[in-house]
Amino acid sequence: MVEVFKTNVQKRAIANILIDEIHRSFPAYRASFDLDDCDKILRVECRSHPVQANELIILLKDFGFQAEVLPDDPPATWKQLSAAYPLFQN
To answer: Residue 37: which domain range?
Structure first.
């Protein structure tokens, strides 16, 4: 299972420290940051059970950072598809 978080982490060195701490606190998790994304994404994967989002948010908060779960994108509707791709229009 994968959970994606928006964070306010800016520096790679800090991200690496946080990744190490996540891996130490949650050995089954694999975490990575995408600091090039405007939301400074933290992606956490766990194959054995759901990611404990609240505990990760608290862990980052304990280090002075904010994190919030990014909601899954809703599926595109027919109207959105037809607006984006005129081929779909009647």
So the answer is: 2-69
Based on its alpha-carbon atoms, the radius of gyration of the chain, rounded to whole angstroms, reads 17
Q: With respect to residue 28, please indicate whether it lies within any of the assigned structural domains.
A: yes
Q: Decide if 56 is inside a domain.
A: yes
As for how many domains the chain has, the answer is: 1
> What confidence tens digit (pLDDT) does each residue in 80-90 have?
666 666 654 55
DSSP assignment of 50-67 equals: ---HHHHHHHHHHTT--E
Q: What is the CATH number of the domain that holds 55?
A: 3.30.70.100
Single-letter residue type at 5: F
Query: What would the pLDDT profile of 25-78 be if each residue is shown by its tens digit?
Result: 999 999 999 999 999 999 999 999 999 999 999 999 999 999 999 987 655 566
pTM over 0.70: yes
